[in-house]
Design a protein that fits this description.
binds glutathione; alpha+beta; Glutathione S-transferase Yfyf (Class Pi), Chain A, domain 2; four-stranded mixed beta sheet; 207 residues; Glutaredoxin
Length: 207
């Protein structure tokens, strides 16, 4: 069984959504970031940069155990392990999926995290940083909204790892202080993903 090293953060939900979509059995291994448990020597062997999520699959390539950190690497690994269309194999579909997948992992989530830091968690009020990250996040929401005006999902007609890489930081729009109402296509997409049984299982409260 796969171990998923998890806390209730955007990137961790991506890995959990993927495992639920694929129906792969997994065990949640909670790593409490508030208690700095990500710095424990055992966890650093799995994730050298003390970042969640991470997985350990005892049945990796060639039957050997493998550990993986970075949510994007985890999503790709799991899709390929399960040979699943969430990461399409056809060349054109894969290119479009990769484009929006990297947009999620490299552009959107890192910016959303900075917005979250200055809007919700920074010990001091920092109006300039809140405004800059807020305005930039709204620009990214607008980019996604325009894409979803022309396509049902980010990569086209099908749900893919690109959607999974973006969804948590849209789902968490209240926490990020952004109203979804000006983004009707993004809102429609957000509701559709929220209604998926795998999404609901992935976002179930932890014990
Ligand atoms: N690029 C990484 C970012 C992971 C990341 O930012 N993880 C945060 C939680 S979402 C974390 O573990 N922070 C704890 C730390 O940096 O010590 C990914 O996509 O997995």
């Amino acid at each position: 069984m796969i171990d998923l090293y998890f806390w209730t953060t955007d990137n961790c939900y991506k890995a959990r959504m993927m495992l639920e979509e694929l129906g792969l059995p997994y065990a949640l291994k909670l790593v409490n970031l508030g208690n700095k448990e990500q710095f424990s020597p055992d966890f650093l062997k799995i994730s050298p940069g003390h970042k969640l999520p991470a997985i350990v699959d005892p049945d990796g390539p060639g039957g050997a155990a493998v550990s993986i950190c970075e949510s994007g690497a985890i999503l790709k690994y799991l899709a390929e392990k399960a040979d699943n269309a969430l990461y399409p194999a056809a060349p054109m579909a894969r290119i479009v999926t990769d484009q929006w997948f990297f947009y999620g992992t490299s552009t959107f989530t890192p910016l959303a995290q900075q917005r979250g830091t200055f809007y919700a968690r920074f010990p001091e009020d920092v109006p300039a940083a809140k405004k800059w990250y807020g305005d930039t996040l709204m620009d990214l929401y607008d980019v996604l909204n325009k894409r979803l005006a022309e396509a049902e999902y980010l990569a086209g007609g099908e749900y893919t790892i690109a959607d999974i890489s973006v969804y948590p930081d849209v789902q968490m729009h209240d926490y990020l202080g952004v109203d979804l109402e000006p983004y009707p296509h993004l809102s429609r997409w957000n509701d559709a993903i929220a209604a998926r049984p795998a999404t609901q299982r992935a976002w179930a409260p932890i014990d």
